[in-house]
Fold these 4 entries.
Entry 1:
Amino acid sequence: MGCGFSNGIVINLDRTISFYYGGESVSGTVQLNVIEGKLEANEIYIALTGEIGYVTTRTVSNGRGQTTTYTEYHHIPFYFARITFAKLSDGQEKLIYEQGQYSWPFQILLSDLIPPTINLPQSYPHVRYYLQVVIVKPWYKLNTKETKYITVFPCVNLLRNPQCLRTTLFGNQNRKEINFKGTLNKIGFVPGELLIATFEFSNPRRVLIQSIDLLILQSFQIRCNSRESTILEITLPNIIDRNDEHIQEIFSVNIPAIQLPPSYDFQGGLQSIADVHLRYRLKFSVKVQGMFTNFHVEVPIILGTEPYFDLNQQQQPSLNPSIISCPSHTDQPPDYETVIQNIK
């Protein structure tokens, strides 16, 4: 057959956005267009693969004081499902497809307990899922393949763990005796949901507090590779260049209403161990006048995929500070790993 035959394979999904939750079925049709000549094959199948990708480096010495560092790319599959469309029967030498169009429907059920898609498919480290149609040809010809990437998230229902609704306390103090205490309304959220926190400053020396930045950080570890990124960064408007002896504030801000993979821990694999850990945390960064006086507080949070209630009742994305008194709570936040395990 002529060159460019691989363009004759198309994977059509039954939905316009290639996004799926664990436990859902990935379904669609595979269309094969034999453009010219004829296609000879031994087998045609589609497979859905979930795998992690990470990199390591290896340094080799030539024995003369010179070294070379090599980057090695690793892929470990943790999920695999396959559907065969056509294969040789007993005594059959080859499958022959003349010019024309051929199509096969497929439906593959995703597991419930799988890690979320992380990073772009060609970036490292990553967790990626892809459909691949393979036309297995006689040994003297190269196989033809067509790949389509999909996004998969596990269902993380925060309602399954009441600890996600618990109020949590946080605080810290710097060398200038600025005492920062705060209360977070809960530790479990979904994208687009409103986060509410109250905090109190005790500043007996009336040192100038220049600003407070709030950051939402995402960090993940895939095997031996780790990355961190900032999801949101804002400066709280009511705490800029203040030296009050006491400050009490409340603020609210929406978690960005974008597609964010949920908090998750995974360890599994088909032949080798694929381990994935995804975390979120809030970071309050306090900038204070003087040298070595800045300090910060970090609060782990859980990001899920299913809300506690109808998000349509939430406020629009905003940052609305107002002065109130901080409530008193004595309960300590639950252990992060415990919460992650319980909401699976």
Entry 2:
Amino acid sequence: MSGTSDSDNSPTSPTAEEVAGNEDLIREIFLCIPTRPLITFKSVSKHWSSLISDPQFSLHHTLKTNPSSIIPSGIFFYNSITKTKEIDYVSLASITDECSRARVRAPSLSFLDEAAKGATIKILQSISGLFLCRFTSQSNDSEVKYDYCVCNPTTKHYTIIPQPRLIEHEKIVEFSLAFEPSDSPYYKVICIKSLTRRYLGSHSLGLCQIDIYSSESRVWRENSCRFEDHGYVKFDKPAIYWNGRMHWITSDLMRYYTVEFDINEESFKGSTLMHQMAHGYHNTPLRYLGECRGHLHVIYVRTPSSKLFRVLERDRETLKWCVKYRIHLNRLLPTFPEIVLQTGHWAQYNFGVEYAFSILYVYKGEKEEDSAMVLTIPGKVISYNFFHKTVKVLRELPSQEIDTSRHQYVTGFHFVETLALA
């Protein structure tokens, strides 16, 4: 008596060849894979490389990015003593096991050399894997020209941002980059331009205007917002984009505030008090303003000679600032005495000793005990773990002369692998 077994009636599993030939299925699988291994898949075949390099795939992959899952691989920074015009890089792989999984070869910005055409390249800002850079060149008649670009060091793609329209007497005060991959795969460039001639140092005085460039439309939108500025907002550094808003630092004689501009509503949302200065210490230094994994951080010192400083963190829901960490330099000075400046800039004001360090990055770990601060000091880049209060040397900088009197404060720019379109 003949019959049919159950196995004969069951559907057959697809073969490896059938899966490999199903382009839609491969795309869905690739969308679930993090950026780092996905990039290595490009070397498997020309077909896979073509799929991963496709702009539409990059857009969809970028949208799947969770801000809390973004782990920086390293930090670009400018040498604080001897090479302030040359970019350097330090890996964060040794900070935690989490960072070690994001270990990558030190990226290079040499792919921008052709676009720069001999101009000096300076990083202004990094956010979620994209970098805002400025090209500075000088014509034969000594006129200085600035051009701007947004680039992705992972894919080595870049876009030269067209100049916003300027009429007589108008000047560009600042460019900043806004990008939140979980909300949109497109970025925006914010340009603040002065509509008047009056300046005080790096601060614009008088009527200013905000123009916005969208990578989706590839055009500037003018007259989106105008405001009166009285020189208090510090436009010498790009704003930080966080929680849908651009944040600038401003101060009066006794207080620090953040001034906030809502990108979607294209309007200012007032200011938020960060820090009440101690009596008698006006305009005390802010050492850091940055974002990591959806957390906004500020670091200030009471006076330039203070050994104790605080890390403030802002709550996304209440938008209030709170002291998250306290750091005392006494934990670093015995091991790194070179931090003490030989000749402090503030000595003429009788503040006493000044300290030669720059805060490159505040890393927010998935676990609280992994959170750390990355600093550059003369001759080294180090990390300080907030929880364990331990220090690691991340990199030696042997080319630096240990002459702390030449120390200049520098900014760090964190690097994250992404397929985001520049």
Entry 3:
Amino acid sequence: MEQVNWVIEVNEKLGSMVDTEKEKEHWMKRSIYRVPASITDINKKAYRPQVVSFGPYHHEEDHLKPMEEHKQRALLHFMRRSGKPLELFVNSLHEDVEKLKDCYDQLDPIWKDNNKFLQLMILDGCFMLEILRSATHTMEDYAQNDPIFSNHGKIHIMPFIKRDMLMLENQLPMQVLDSLVAVDSNRTKDEEFVNKLILKFCSPNTPISCKGSGLHVLDVYRKSLLQDIPGRRQRKRLRKPRSSHHEGGDDIIRSAMELNEAGIRFKKSKTVSLKDISFRGGVLKLPAVIVDDATESMFLNLIAFERFHVGAGNEVTSYIFFMDNIVDNEKDVALLHSRGIIQNALGSDKAVAKLFNSLSKDITLDPDSSLDEVHKRVSRYCKKAWNEWRANLIHTYFRNPWAILSLISVVFLFALTIVQTVYTVYPFYQNSPTPSSETFPPPMASPLLSTPLTAPPLPSPKHKAPPQSNQTHY
């Protein structure tokens, strides 16, 4: 009987099944996801907010309830400064309440109540806007000793709120912020206004920008890290069928120290874009990255977003995969730090190396990633005979001081042996007899020149000289 009911149920669902286009539209609405336990178990703290909740996933959790009081207070400040009735803000979102719900994956049944859901969106949205505006220093209606919006709060509370704001499960749809700003400003703000607020708060000292509307705060921040490189043409990669296994180790990149031994130099890229990685002429250029206490959580949530949101891309995941390859230990971190690529605000170099190695756990790299060409160029360079010989020489003889001293001693002894041989052989050639004229017989004189020429006798005065003939007498 149960089997019959199951068959009937499946047939009914089959009859009401939507076509491919509607199914595609359904999945495109999703932008905020729950991170499954298989991922969060590796580092639960990285995906769970510690100070404040935004949205329905972590609403009213016990350790986050103290911030609810400050949300209510921020809402009142926002409304008083706006000078507009609350109904205008509610009506601006009421029409799209179902669209806002569709942004969340696996929404709990308690949020089927539209009124309750709208209250949450407006309360959390106004609080988030107040937090973002705090970076502009334009709000003067809070007390100087306010626990959140005072200078004291900006130092001790805001960094934790910023970390929570960049978690995938702790997002608000961008439409909520845009609608609240539109009503508050009578639609005088441009579409980039909220983006500028987000980037001013998240990256106050970095000149970055993000064009186009994002899905939420995390998406806007991600796009700011992936700016297009000026003057570099973006080319579309053609997908090719590839083997699931690495062929000949072409996709494996050595550590930074090993690459340096092979003659590869490291330089800091001109931009902070994670896409600004290039290799040309033996020089590997990498963007500068600041590593602090919030770096791990930020990157893990960006990787999770790329994993679950179809079409988001894989640039951040590729960057982490690349950095994990070239950073094996603290020596690699020290080398990259000396080149200005890694700015260590975390502590020891060993802690930074451990962080990059942990970020790449259980991630899958798209074989058609933007860094694939860089992988190939570096691999080809390292496989050249001269570079391999140089790397082996440095790895064998210049890894520690004792090996260097041994090599110097061998070279020195070899040089002494050559000098000794020269000084042994040189006197032999110096004392040997040299060729002279006494060793050879004197030259033979010519027969004509051996008999001296004599003049004819002069005639006596008493006799008359006979007439001379044309013959010469000898």
Entry 4:
Amino acid sequence: MKFSAVVLLCVLQSTGAFVNVQRITKPSFVSTRFSTATPDSATVTDDDKRKTKKDERLRMMKSDQFHRKGFKEVRDDVEATMQQQFQSNIVKNLRESNYLMEKDGVKVYLAKDFGFCWGVERSIALAYEAVNHFPDKKIHITNELIHNPEVNDKLHDMNVQFIEKAGDDGSKNFEGIQDGDVVILPAFGASFEEMEFFDKKNVEVVDTTCPWVSKVWNTVDKHQKQGMTSVIHGKYAHEETVATVSFCEDYICVKDKKEAQMVADYIVNGGDKDAFLKHFEKAVSKGFDPDTMLSKIGLANQTTMYKKETREIGQLFQKAIMKKYGPVEAKDHYLEFDTICDATQERQDAVSELVENVNDYGLDFILVIGGWDSSNTAHLLEIPVKAGIRAFHINQASCIGADNTITHRTMDGQIITEPFIQDMGKEVVMGVTSGASTPDAAIQDSLSNIFLLKKSRDASA
């Protein structure tokens, strides 16, 4: 198995101990909410030219201590390691047999798009290469690399130090980072303030940020340059969204269509300002004023959200802006860019296909495998559950118990244990998929547990 991330890598070639993305001193960028016009443009000096956080990020990335193309001399070893750790013979056989397998009284339908996306593979490859390239240096990572327990456990085994959170306010303890150390930025990216902090220290930075996340940052930069408030369809506490809003000037996060409708209603009709701000108190920029900051908005998304809902949210805002300002003026008050990554959409479409064929296939349930804190995996669960189909989201194979129980995450975030296979006397027919941060080996381990469970029950019958 050849990992596309490794191929991509070949082609691509202050001193405070705590950093809080809300409290840290911000750089003196000139606000773009005011007009950029001057009485005489010929007299504009270099100091007057506006710089955005994107401009500053690009400057940081030019440093000799900022690495985002990997390290060629260790690439072959990393590729071999990733193949050994993450490949699966069962998944390989499923692919080769039209995504269908029958084994030990279990029939398995595998979704046609599932598991690792190239951005995740790339992130893992970069992190592994950093460990191999800097064998004598202390290596830190600002967060989980991706939302998958097995992958993060392997980094722990490599002695990568996961930076601890210092409190519930989002601050992190950077006290252990010393001159000469290595800091890995995870696939979700890091906040602008964190990047600025590391830029001022004598450390090697290995940036594994997914290019799709960078695309979102470029989008909110366009909003900023046009004096717009960024409306982010995402979860305000999710690592990716935390990073994204750090590149915004004014922003508001909406987690779902219901919250988007609240914003749309306020755009059109105004409302109870205090109640509005109370509801969104953790999801808006400092000093946010809905009476003035919703007149020009740009929409962007956390890359792992449910794309169908994002499109519906976009339509809500389009209608609200047209109603408020009319069809001619609307274009000056609203911008929209699709920043849902292709891999997220492909995996959602593949699960939808399983759901559409649930009766033809005779599925007893659909198993969704991926980290419990993985947003893209959680949205995969929503599709069958909302269609009334029995479905389970597990984060690893050990969730399937030998006593025929399953420990899983429900759609509302609870972790519960309940009876699993309802009728052991017949063939078990199941669908299976996995999130974009889940290795094929996790599917194999989970299916192996189910095969063993059914086989042992048949043998004792």
